[in-house]
Model the fold of this input.
Amino acid sequence: MSDSHTPCGFRELLPGYALGALEPEELDRLEGHLAAECPECAAELDELRRDLEVLVAAAPPVAPSPLVRRRLLAQVARERRDRALPRWLPLAAAVAALLLTGLGWMWLQRDAEARRLRGERDRLASRLAQTEGRLAAAEAQRAALARQLAIVAAPGGRQFALAGLGPATGAAGRTFVDPATGRAVFFASGLPRLAGDRTYQLWVIPAGAAPVPAGVFAVDAGGGAVVQVETVPDAAAIEAWAVTIEPSGGVPQPTGEMVLHG
Amino acid sequence: MAAGDAAALAKLYDRHAAAVLGLLLRMLRNRGEAEEVLQEAWLQAWRQAAGFRAERSTARGWVAMIARSRALDRLRSVRAARRREDDAVREGWLGGEESQPMAHRELEERERRSLVDGALAALPAEQRQCLELAFFDGLSHSQIAERLGAPLGTVKSRILMGMGKLRTALAPYRG
Done:
């Protein structure tokens, strides 16, 4: 690029360019430069072209034969006729455009509709998944309750009432045992929540034998709990049930404070 | 004319065609060919009328440059087996019946022509020669150099200086 005091380096080529006298390589170079729109060269080129137009007058005018004029105007008339559109074309074009926009509109509608339906479908699918999840949970709960009911209502079943002791005097418990299946279910209420490293543990106390662990549990917000025991050894020989406070994970033999017994 | 008005074209043609033909005859030295190019040039001018910029050229100059361009193409085409080279040094303008310019423009035209002739005549001979060879004969720098037996650089600088002097001389009369 040149500053205002140094003319553009391509300036020298411009007269030759305007005259059409440049060699091919020079022409290429200059055209590349002009394509970059050098304003100085563009301005100078304008000036040069005007200079050359004046030079035209250096050749004396010569009247052309009338044939040239006639042929020229005939050609022009022919081109003008070809250029004019047939009358029905604008109308056809308008109809075609309308049709296209109509089709286009329908297309867009369909597309939007498809997208909307897909969105709807996705929402429904996720709702379905949620519902199925809840259904499964409800089913599991129903099954559990059914099992408990079966134990509670078992003919020949035994019932134990547990009383609160020590730090849980307000608590109570009840165990139902079904000797036919060896299943038992224990209900607790009013037990306080324990610290993180402690848990409640249920014990079966057979007659004349050491307590047998029957599962660990935690109480819910209301201080209640349900424990299902799948296999109770020798249901007929059970003397009592007890609940103690033990370290998390439970222990093989009771070590902690007893809170329920009966 | 840009509006596709054939009457406007006819009017411009009547006013400027002779000047353009004069240029073409000088370049092509063949009546038939010159008139062919004349017709082509006016047709092109009519088609490209929208591209004419009044602030940049005169109508005559604009059509004349279109014509010159087409004439250059012919001069340089391979088909030009015909010998166009005149003598090494041009003597004077090519003859031909000079047309009578339209009466009311007569003075204007003659005046303009004599101004341009005067400006050219005022140039150093070697500069004028190079300009004429480039402008009317459509020779390239190297072709001029070959024709005159002069170095390429000399030809280039003669053209540069000649154009510069011409501009100064004609500045008061430019369109």
